[in-house]
């Protein structure tokens, strides 16, 4: 390994001579130096720092920054740094251009068929066959009457093309705006991320994008690191680097062993200060994204470079240096590609919103495929019947010979039949479905922002509507997270109010003040209120802020103590984590002795106490009996009032003893002397009891999962309304929960969980693992007929697994750590439980909007297909022409999806039970409405079609010649059909059989605009549409008749509503979820992109093929990177973690696997040869 290091340094020497010319003048170190440093690990990195810079202090000097004061924050200096070392920004993948989206929309099969039909129709309309007016061509050809009409034959073809263009542009525009919204959402999430840095000696929070090389950043438990850096000072710092290396163990970071921290990794324990050394595309995460091709420009540059490389092999060294940034990265990060660190996954999701298939989308795709198949069959039958009828009539009944000069005329007939068939297909295929889902979700997501829900994954919004259980945290979600100390037990006396400082012995008071000031994270502090007369602002951990507030109430200043004992002089810190449930800080005294302060959950810290300070401030023995006494008389009364109890204690280590083994925590944090037990109040949010009542009424069970004492938890649960006096519900601690769900071998059994969870309402003193176990247990349970859909709230780093496991994970926007936000689906920007209830309302609304749209669309589909089919078979011509059908299609697809998908939610949505995962999209009530309205519309249309000319005393439009002018008769049929759709759109607003279909209609501006807009356009089409729309102007009487027929559907709707659905046993439901979903698919394919089964049937081959290609492409990148020369250490060092690639590989067909392992083998060999 030694000569490897030398090799690498020698190599970087050659390399830097070229690069340093740019920046050496400004800073004492270049981007390449720093990048090479961050490529190293642990001891090698230490050696490199010592060799090049002396120590971290030397590195800071070179970067012109102060480890204590940080950067000055001078804008000129910041700009220089951004020029020299880059900005902390990774360019996203280029979005698709509008033209690309148009091209994609054109790929639609139905549209292609239409285009072909239109072009053929156009071509034939311009071709006038010789002898076309030959009487031998059959009587049907009487269609080519006067010249003027024959000239107008092209109009139909053009009209079809125009309407196709409309559909394409609408689809493309929708996709484009969806993409834009999604990017806006992403950038908003990114902008909201702030990070703590020191500038000009002040600790400030700045947006992640403004961090520059040389900044001194403060990192703490729960942070997602935004840049690479080198540790200056750390307390008990442990980092989860699995997103980069795939190694799941937490890595301990210390100045003398492993001082490098990398972007994209999570701080799991402790705190510290780092100097930032790489940002943006030069950081480890940036290198990966460059490799994954997220920065499009870099990909192009890379290709250019590779071309140049081949040409200029002679000046090899120079070219190697040019290729360095990419290829080093390519090789370094290979394991990552396969592991796909969380971030990479997130970014992928960001770029491919279409990948996320939810339960609803699964049901819809399946339904659309079924309807499409039915439409295809109907249209094929239509064409076959028309052709057969024509052939039999012309050549059999009239017994005419096939004459060559008649061929073009016959072809014109066949094209007309083909167009009619395509029209049936166009109307049958519900291409508006995906549009409706998109509009509904996008609209809801936009509106949910106003309700403090920042939706990160679109489908979470709709899943929330099916939620049956919510597992909520207590602190900050149900309570205000505005903590204050209200009671204290000091010197053997229980104070119900904050005591006066002079009533406490001086010695006890000093110990207490120092203990709290030093043993709270230095990032927690109390700032003056923002507004005059407001409450002081709490920054950092809220419990610690309560203790600091207690110091202020005792008329002392914690900041003075901290100035006296700065953070870097703390000897050792055992930071708070969910296992310890306590925090301890050790100070070294001037005489060489040590003093340790501890604070934590009262029953846990008291167990470690062997003494307690009495009323005079002297320590006296504290026996287990005294402890039980204290728990009964002090802690339980506090807890039963809903107070969180915290114990503060200390211990002295004498000079004479050998220095203790600080790593042996159990021997250190014991034999403590209890200073005080305080009761901290965190009042319940005012709106929470009402929100929980709404949830319970809506059939959603709310459970509280908290780390607090069971008495505190129970008291808060009663205040919130989760528990009611006299309820037969469980309220247990984590220990008891674990005891009940595990068998003799200590394994968790689902049957045991099933006995507990239905009655469980409060889980106290729970660890994050308990939370995950509970969520998994409820989701996997088969006790209830419907699979439970669980939402979970979380704020801590350790809540990540539970948030990921839940159907919908809510992270706290204010108190949440970056890790929790990363794992969540929705971020609550106000940390408030009542916002979750709003999310439920929006989720249910999405579901109902889609159902409303389906009810409307399927009625139109059924009627239009039957009319076109029977009309064609009986009269050899569809009563509704191709262009008219396309207009109907536009109304019922694009416009209706806009009108019905943007209905705002109402409180009434919370009065019914959740639908559940396998509830069909089309209920029996909806099926009743669809068939009922279908019958009415068919009766009206057929009556007008076959008796309309007698009723209105007009010329019949049936059996007209090929290019006859539009008839009044068929115009009435078309107009009535559209009017019935318009009024039925109002009917479709209700799907549960409600009578008042107008309720709330005028609150929805979009709906009213679309209905009136469609009506106006219909008037224009009928009165002025002429030949292209096959319409002729109607007089006012005929118009009124059309409107009366249309309004009839409102009255008919009332009639349908009176028929009880329960009587109609023959009605079937439709749009069930895929049954296989009932196997917890999350387990089967946790990391495979979810593709629902309907689509899977269509795409299984394709997917494997694309994945294979994608894999091979990545391998080629790596191989190319190798050929162009690079830092081999990285690959060798990362080699072990290639084992972690099996996660990904198992999901891919065998051939790809072979390619993969072959490459891996070759890379290893490559490295060994060189070293």
TrEMBL record:
* Reaction(s) catalysed by this chain's protein: Ca(2+)(in) + ATP + H2O = Ca(2+)(out) + ADP + phosphate + H(+)
SUPFAM superfamilies the record matches: Calcium ATPase, transduction domain A (SSF81653), Calcium ATPase, transmembrane domain M (SSF81665), HAD-like (SSF56784), Metal cation-transporting ATPase, ATP-binding domain N (SSF81660)
Cation-transporting P-type ATPase N-terminal domain mapped to chain residues: 52-126
Leader sequence range is none
Q: Which residues cross the membrane?
A: 101-126, 154-173, 376-397, 417-443, 930-947, 1005-1026, 1038-1059
Instruction: State where it is primarily located.
Output: membrane
Biased segments, Basic and acidic residues type: 302-325
Membrane topology type, per the record? Multi-pass membrane protein
Q: Which domain of life is it from?
A: Eukaryota
Q: Which GO terms describe its molecular function?
A: ATP binding; ATP hydrolysis activity; calmodulin binding; metal ion binding; P-type calcium transporter activity; PDZ domain binding
Stated EC number for the protein is: 7.2.2.10
Q: Which Pfam families match?
A: ATP_Ca_trans_C, Cation_ATPase, Cation_ATPase_C, Cation_ATPase_N, E1-E2_ATPase, Hydrolase_3
State the similarity comment: Belongs to the cation transport ATPase (P-type) (TC 3.A.3) family. Type IIB subfamily.
What's the protein called, per UniProt?
A: Calcium-transporting ATPase
Please report the organism this UniProt entry assigns to the protein.
Answer: Latimeria chalumnae
Q: What is the primary gene name for this protein?
A: LOC102353242
């Amino acid at each position: 390994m030694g000569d490897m290091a030398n090799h690498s340094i020698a190599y970087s020497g050659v390399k830097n001579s070229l690069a340093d010319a740019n920046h050496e003048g400004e800073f004492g170190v270049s981007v390449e130096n720093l990048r090479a440093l961050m490529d190293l690990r642990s001891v090698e990195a230490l050696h490199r720092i010592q060799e090049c810079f002396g120590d971290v202090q030397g590195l800071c000097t070179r970067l012109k920054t102060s480890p204590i004061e940080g950067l000055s924050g001078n804008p000129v200096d910041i700009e220089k740094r951004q020029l020299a070392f880059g900005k902390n920004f990774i360019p996203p993948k280029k979005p698709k251009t509008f033209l690309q989206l148009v091209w994609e929309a054109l790929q639609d099969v139905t549209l292609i068929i239409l285009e072909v039909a239109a072009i053929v129709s156009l071509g034939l309309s311009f071709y006038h066959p010789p002898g076309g007016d030959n009487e031998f061509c059959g009587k049907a050809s009487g269609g080519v009457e006067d010249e003027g009409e024959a000239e107008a034959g092209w109009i139909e073809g053009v009209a079809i093309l125009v309407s196709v263009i409309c559909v394409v542009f609408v689809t493309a525009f929708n996709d484009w705006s969806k993409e834009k919204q999604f990017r806006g959402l992403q950038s908003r999430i990114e902008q909201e991320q702030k990070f703590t840095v020191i500038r000009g000696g002040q600790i400030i929070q700045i947006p992640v994008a403004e961090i520059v090389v040389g900044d001194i950043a403060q990192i703490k438990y729960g942070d997602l690191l935004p840049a690479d850096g080198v540790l200056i000072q750390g307390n008990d710092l442990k980092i989860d680097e699995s997103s980069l290396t795939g190694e799941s163990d937490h890595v301990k970071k210390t100045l003398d062993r492993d001082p490098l921290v990398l972007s994209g990794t999570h701080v799991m324990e402790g705190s510290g200060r780092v100097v930032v050394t790489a940002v943006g595309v030069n950081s480890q995460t940036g290198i990966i994204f460059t490799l994954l091709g997220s920065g499009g420009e870099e990909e192009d540059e890379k290709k250019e470079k590779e071309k140049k490389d081949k040409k200029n092999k002679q000046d090899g060294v120079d070219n190697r240096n040019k290729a360095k940034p990419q290829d080093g990265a390519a090789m370094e990060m290979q394991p990552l590609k396969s592991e796909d660190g969380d971030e990479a996954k997130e970014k992928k999701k960001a770029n491919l919103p279409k990948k996320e298939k939810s339960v609803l989308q699964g049901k819809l795709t399946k339904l659309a495929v079924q309807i499409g198949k039915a439409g295809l069959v109907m249209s094929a039958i239509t064409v076959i019947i028309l052709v057969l009828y024509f052939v039999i009539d012309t050549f059999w009944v009239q017994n005419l010979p096939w004459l060559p000069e008649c061929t073009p005329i016959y072809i014109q007939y066949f094209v007309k039949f083909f167009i009619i068939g395509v029209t049936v297909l166009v109307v049958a295929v519900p291409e508006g479905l995906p549009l409706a889902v998109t509009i509904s979700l996008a609209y809801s997501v936009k509106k949910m922002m106003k309700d403090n829900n920042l939706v990160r994954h679109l489908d979470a919004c709709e899943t929330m509507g099916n939620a049956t259980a919510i597992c909520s945290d207590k602190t900050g979600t149900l309570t205000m997270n505005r903590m204050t100390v209200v009671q204290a037990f000091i010197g053997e006396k229980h104070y119900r109010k904050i005591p006066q400082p002079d009533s406490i012995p001086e010695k006890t008071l000093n110990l207490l003040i120092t203990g709290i000031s030093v043993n709270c994270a230095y990032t927690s502090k109390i700032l003056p209120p923002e507004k005059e007369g407001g409450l002081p602002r709490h920054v950092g951990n809220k419990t610690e802020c309560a203790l600091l507030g207690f110091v202020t109430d005792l008329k002392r200043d914690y900041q003075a103590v901290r100035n006296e004992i700065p953070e870097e002089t703390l000897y050792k810190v055992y930071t708070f984590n969910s296992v310890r449930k306590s925090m301890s800080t050790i100070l070294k005294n001037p005489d060489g002795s040590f003093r340790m302060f501890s604070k934590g959950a009262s029953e846990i810290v008291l167990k470690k106490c062997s003494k307690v300070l009495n009323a005079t401030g002297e320590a006296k023995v504290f026996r287990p009996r005294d402890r039980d006494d204290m728990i009964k008389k002090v802690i339980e009364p506090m807890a039963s009032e809903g107070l969180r109890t915290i114990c503060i204690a200390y211990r002295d280590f004498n000079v004479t003893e050998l220095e203790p083994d600080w790593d042996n925590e159990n021997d250190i944090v014991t034999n403590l002397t209890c200073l005080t037990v305080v009761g901290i109040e965190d009042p319940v949010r005012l709106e929470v009891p009402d929100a929980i009542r709404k949830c319970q009424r809506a059939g959603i069970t709310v459970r509280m999962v908290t780390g607090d004492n069971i008495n505190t938890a129970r008291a808060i649960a009663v205040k919130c309304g989760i528990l009611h006096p006299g309820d037969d519900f469980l309220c247990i601690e984590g220990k008891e929960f674990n005891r009940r769900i595990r068998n003799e071998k200590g394994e968790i059994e689902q049957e045991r969980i099933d006995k507990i969870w239905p009655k469980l309402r409060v889980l106290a003193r729970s660890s994050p693992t308990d939370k995950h176990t509970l969520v998994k247990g409820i989701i996997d349970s088969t006790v209830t007929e419907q699979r439970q859909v669980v939402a979970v709230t979380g704020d801590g780093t350790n809540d990540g697994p539970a948030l990921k496991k839940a159907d919908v994970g809510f992270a706290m926007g204010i108190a949440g750590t970056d890790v929790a936000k990363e794992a969540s689906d929705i971020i609550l920007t106000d940390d408030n439980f009542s916002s979750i209830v709003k999310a439920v309302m929006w989720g249910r609304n999405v579901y109902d909007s889609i159902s409303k749209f389906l009810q409307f669309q399927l009625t139109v589909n059924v009627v239009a297909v039957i009319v076109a089919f029977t009309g064609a078979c009986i009269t050899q011509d569809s009563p509704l022409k191709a262009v008219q059908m396309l207009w109907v299609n536009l109304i019922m697809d694009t416009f209706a999806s806009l009108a019905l998908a943007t209905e705002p939610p109402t409180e009434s949505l919370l009065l019914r039970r959740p639908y559940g995962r396998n509830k069909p999209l089309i209920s029996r009530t909806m099926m009743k409405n669809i068939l009922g309205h279908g019958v009415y519309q068919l009766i009206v249309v057929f009556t007008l079609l076959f008796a309309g000319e007698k009723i209105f005393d007009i010329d019949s439009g049936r059996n007209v010649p090929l290019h006859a002018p539009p008839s009044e008769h068929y115009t009435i049929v078309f107009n009535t059909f559209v009017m019935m759709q318009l009024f039925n759109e109002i009917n479709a607003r209700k799907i549960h059989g409600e009578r008042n279909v107008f309720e709330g209609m005028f609150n929805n501006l979009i709906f009213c605009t679309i209905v009136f807009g469609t009506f106006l356009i219909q008037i224009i089409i009928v009165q002025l549409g002429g030949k292209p729309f096959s319409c002729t102007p109607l007089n006012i009487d005929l118009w009124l008749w059309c409107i009366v027929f249309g309004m009839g559907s409102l009255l008919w709707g009332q009639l349908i509503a009176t028929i009880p659905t329960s009587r109609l046993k023959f009605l079937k439901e439709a749009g069930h979820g895929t049954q296989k979903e009932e196997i917890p698919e999350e387990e089967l394919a946790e990391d495979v992109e979810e593709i629902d089964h309907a689509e899977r049937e269509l795409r299984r081959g394709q997917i494997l093929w694309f994945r294979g290609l994608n894999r091979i492409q990545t391998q080629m990148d790596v191989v190319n990177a190798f050929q162009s020369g690079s830092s081999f250490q990285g690959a060798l060092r990362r080699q072990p973690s290639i084992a972690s690639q099996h996660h990904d590989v198992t999901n891919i067909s065998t051939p790809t696997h072979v390619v993969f392992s072959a490459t891996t083998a070759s890379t290893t060999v490559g490295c060994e040869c060189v070293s």
